Amino acid sequence: MDKRLEDLFYAQHARQESARIIRDAAGHDGNGPGGTYLVSSFRQRQDLPVTASLRIMTSAVAIRLSEMGLLEPVSLSALPDCWWTVKVDAADEGLCSEHGCAFVVRTLSTRQLIERGIEVVGGPFMDGVPPE
């Protein structure tokens, strides 16, 4: 597996676990004030809530969003009716037994992307129908 993707996966997984622990300790639910954002890297960000969930996006997605007037970090709540091409962990799909050992490309709605996904490689597609 590509070392960069493996590092991204483990960084995102650690961030999600720590955010979950913080939310549980603070009494916030999963849909609380943290939100889910598209970013170009997992570096530490001061412009987002501590409980924010991040999804990495490729430069092509960042360019497409900037053409729409949306600059990083992009809240997925601003794009509720879109479809995205996303790399997801193959273990979440039941295709392998170990998390982080493989990724598959799927088309997800914004609602699905908020719940899962590692890297957004295409989109947003806004015609109401997922791309083929």
Write the layout of secondary structure elements.
Elements lengths: L2 H24 L9 E4 L13 E5 L1 H9 L6 E2 L7 E7 L13 E7 H6 L3 E7 L7
Parallel strand pairs: 1-2, 2-6
Antiparallel strand pairs: 1-3, 4-5, 4-6
Short key terms for the protein model shown above:
alpha/beta; 30% helix; globular
> N-to-C terminal Cα separation, in Å?
26 Å
How many structural domains are formed by the residues? 1
Q: Largest beta sheet, briefly?
A: 6 strands, mixed
- Percent of residues in helices comes to 25-40%
> Cα-atom Rg, whole angstroms?
14 Å
DSSP strand tally? 6
> Tell me, what's the shape?
globular
Strand content: 15-25%
3D architecture notes:
By secondary structure, this protein is of the alpha/beta class. The chain has one domain (3-125). It contains 3 helices and 6 strands. The protein has helices at 3-26, 59-67, 110-115; strands spanning 36-39, 53-57, 74-75, 83-89, 103-109, 119-125. The protein has a 6-stranded mixed β-sheet with strand order 3-1-2-6-4-5, sandwiched between helices.
Task: Give a concise summary.
This protein has 132 residues and is of the alpha/beta class. Helices cover 30% and strands 24% of the residues.
